[in-house]
Structures are given as C-alpha cells and as structure tokens.
Design brief:
The structure is a homodimer. The first copy, chain A, is an alpha/beta fold. The first copy, chain A, has seven helices and six strands, in the order αααβββαβαβαβα.
Chain lengths: 206, 206
C-alpha cells in the first residue's frame, strides 16, 4: 500500500483540504470521497474556481479591499460619497457593512487590528496608508468601524491620534454606535453594553 | 456591484465550495477569504489536487474500490488471501477495515445498502457483480461487514440468500461479531448489543 488511503491522489487531496481552517483529516476524507462519488465536472469546477479566484483576485491599491482590478469596484464607483471613509478590520467586514445598505461612502481595510500579543503592531496593518489617504484627499469623515474589543479599541484610538495629528479642523472622526442589539432581550444584554446604551441614549422617535 | 461578494471570482469559489456537504455559504466564504490571505501556491495546490484526484481516480473493475488503475492495489497484491472476500458498504469502510490490520483478504464494495425509502434496490448496488465474482472464482469465505442497521441487515440477508442459491457447499458466509465495544462501560452499552454479546459469548482466554 503506497499510502494510508491506497491512492496518492486521494492522499494529496485530503492533505490539501485539511490545511483549511476547521477541516481535519476526517472531514477532508469525507469531502474527498464525496467528490469522488459526484460527477467529474463538479470537482473540476471546484478546483478550477479556487485556482481562478486565488490567481485573479488581489487587493485594491486605494482601500486594500479584495479586487480583480487595480482599483476595486467600490472605489471606482462614481455614485459613492468619496468624502467618507469607513475603516474596517477585514474584507468580511466590508461585505457586512455593504449588506446593511446604510453606507454609500468608501472603505479602508486595515487587514487586522493592533495586537501586541500576536506581534501585530501599527506598521503591520494599513494605518499609514490610511493617514496618507486622508491627508491627500478631500475626506471629511472617517468612521472607525472596528469590533468593540480591546484590540479594536486600541486600534481605534491609535488611528484617532494619528488622524488628529494631521491638524485638519474640517475632519470628523466617528465610531459605530454601541448599544442593545436589535431584537435582543435586555435580560441577555451584558451590563457593559447596557450601560453604554444608557450613556448613548437618543431622543425617542417613532 | 456585480455580485454579492463584489467579485465574480470570489462568488464562483464560494458557490462551488458550498456544494460540499456540511459547508454552507458562510463557511464557504470564510474558507475562500482564508485562501485569499494565504500564499497563492496553497490555493493552486488545493485546486489542482482536487482536479487531479477526480480525474485520476476511478473504480476497481474487480472490487469497485477506488483505484488509480483498472485493478486496485489490494486486488493486485499477490500477498493477500484471494479466497476471502469482505463485503463493505463503501470506500470508507475499506479504509476502516484496512486500518485494523486484522484482514488480509480482498474486498467487495457495494456502493450502498438496500434502502427502499431512498429508492436503492438490490440492482442499484454491486450485488450481482459480487455473486458473479463468487461464482467465477475460488472464494471460500464471504464476510458480510455491513453496519448493523435495518438496511445493513436487510442487505446482508439478501446477499446471503443470493450466495446460498449458488449451491456452493464449500462456501462459508460470515458476518462481523456484535458485542460490547472495546473500552466501553457496560452501563453505556444499549440492551440489544448487551443481549447479543451474551448470546454470542466466547470461552474466556487470557
């Protein structure tokens, strides 16, 4: 027997699949055997889609979001408000904010948050390019939309200071509102969030 | 925006990934974004491994196990006992039995079990080829190694009758022993299994 799986091709597929996060060798084998049972076109389409995606997608020169072109569709969309930049941690968050349909400005994808424990300092992520971008363009508002975690807050504050140092009196820096999640029972809202929702309370409107 | 994911390449990869069992669109997106963050070679290696596997693996003409050649490595291994055939439901079970290191005969992979509810009759799986194989070869024992479920038992019985109909007095038909799982507490062994382990009790040996 050449390999544990009686086939070096199966072994190869299982090994590559199990490099993916959350996929162990057992799951990888299950997926590979599933593909063997299905039509050949399906497995080839999957394999080719992964190759095409990885080869065809790079990062937008302006906002560092994923893009098939040098500048992403959002940055090159002339209908969007170019004076507002929403700073997010990663590509997924761009998709999340886009899905709300409540934002028509541009993005800046940091590619992470400052986390000394993980060895991620300010220079490891796209903060300098953000500061340059704000300095060089007519940007009137920067929305800091990082997760309300220790690392997110640290990164927010670091960016805030860097942007303030530009000395641009016309620049507004905002952050996402914090409060009770829509549809959530107060009973299950943690006290920090509930406390913040009282401090940040807004006039009642119908 | 052309697609939900701002990139038809990303969309394509997510769509193909989410065809896999147990992988929804959210997980598919997470996997695709992970691949985008990793080195290009990794994604290409994965994609190519899946294509190569599906194109290079077919089924053994003799036992219907997966094989890169017309006859699989087990069937063509001259050191194995060709007089004993172990009947299993699927490819995974071949790997499972091989891993025990307790069997050196050949296999016959049915590709399923009889299950009228799922529209799987005796002719949908490799039963006729098993009967022909036993009729045409010097096979002295057939081990029925299907899962002890309703469908497995039905299939076992169907195969048993078909093989008996060959009228081969030298043919022994066996099934897997049923009993308490090794290392399992009796307290957690179901009563059917425990009852079977009493009926099938064996002389004590050190």
């Amino acid at each position: 027997m050449e390999s544990e799986f009686q086939s070096s091709l199966l072994e190869g597929a299982v090994t590559e699949l199990s490099r993916l996060p959350g996929i162990g060798r057992k799951t990888a084998l299950r997926l590979a055997l599933y593909m063997l049972r299905r039509d050949e076109r399906e497995a080839v389409a999957l394999g080719q889609a992964l190759i095409d995606m990885r080869r065809g997608i790079s990062y937008c020169r302006v906002c560092h979001n994923i893009s098939e072109a040098e500048v992403c569709p959002i940055c090159s969309d002339t209908r969007r408000d170019t004076s507002t930049v929403c700073v997010v941690e990663n590509v997924k968050d761009v998709l999340n904010v886009e899905r709300t349909g409540r934002f028509d400005g541009l993005y800046h994808v940091l590619g992470g948050v400052i986390s000394p424990i993980d060895g991620i300092g300010p220079d490891s992520i796209e903060i300098n390019s953000l500061v340059e971008r704000v300095a060089d363009n007519k940007i009137s508002e920067v929305i800091l939309a990082l997760s309300p975690t220790m690392e997110g807050d640290t990164t927010n504050y670091y960016i805030y200071r860097k942007l303030m140092a530009l000395g641009r009196s016309d620049l507004v820096i905002t952050r996402l509102a914090r409060g009770v999640a829509v549809g959530n029972d107060l009973e299950y809202t943690d006290e920090l969030t509930l406390g913040r929702s009282i401090i940040d309370r807004r006039p009642f409107e119908n």
